Amino acid sequence: MNLTKLQLREMIREELLKEKVLQFSKKGERFIKRDIQDLKSHIKNLEKGVQRNDGNIVRDAIDDITETTTWVNKNLKKYFARIVGNY
Q1: Does residue 1 sit in the same domain as residue 34?
Q2: Are 58 and 49 in contact (CB under 8 A)?
Q3: What is the pTM assigned to this prediction?
Q4: 46 pLDDT above the threshold of 70
Q5: N or C: at which end does the chain have fewer Cβ atoms within 10 angstroms?
Q6: Alpha-carbon span 75 to 81, nearest angstrom
Q7: Residue 42, class by beta-carbon neighbours within 10 Å (0-12 exposed, 13-18 middle, 19+ buried)?
Q8: Together in a domain, 73 and 38
Q9: What is the average per-residue pLDDT within 3-21?
């Protein structure tokens, strides 16, 4: 099988991209697991605030949930942009 330089370069590029995506998915999985734990904690705080009828706890929990979900969205966009931008 004779490959041109361009075909060989493209094959190498595809393999590098696969490796980069694999690295991202491992790192991304850790971040996602951590963020899910954070969200669970914030939801528990929200439930406590509702049970105690404490508006301050409820407001803080909602703020934490909003901040965490915003952070998750920004990080996912950043990581996907890095992968696509590098190749």
Answers
A1: yes
A2: yes
A3: 0.61
A4: yes
A5: N
A6: 10
A7: buried
A8: no
A9: 79
Q: Would you state the structure tokens that stand for residue 47, as one six-digit string?
A: 């439930």
Residue 53 backbone zone (phi > 0: left; psi -120 to 50: alpha; other: beta): left
DSSP state string for 56-78? HHHHHHHHHHHHHHHHHHHHHHH
Whether 76 has a pLDDT exceeding 80, the answer reads: no
C-alpha pair distances (Å), 68 with each of 24, 31, 74, 75, 76: 20, 11, 10, 11, 12
Q: What's the pLDDT score for residue 42?
A: 93
Compute the distance between CA of residue 86 and CA of residue 40 in angstroms, rounded to an integer.
34
Structure tokens that stand for 6 in this block: 């361009």
DSSP type of residue 6: H
Of 44, 47, 43, the closest CA to residue 65 belongs to 43
Main-chain dihedrals φ then ψ at residue 53, nearest 5 degrees = 60, 40
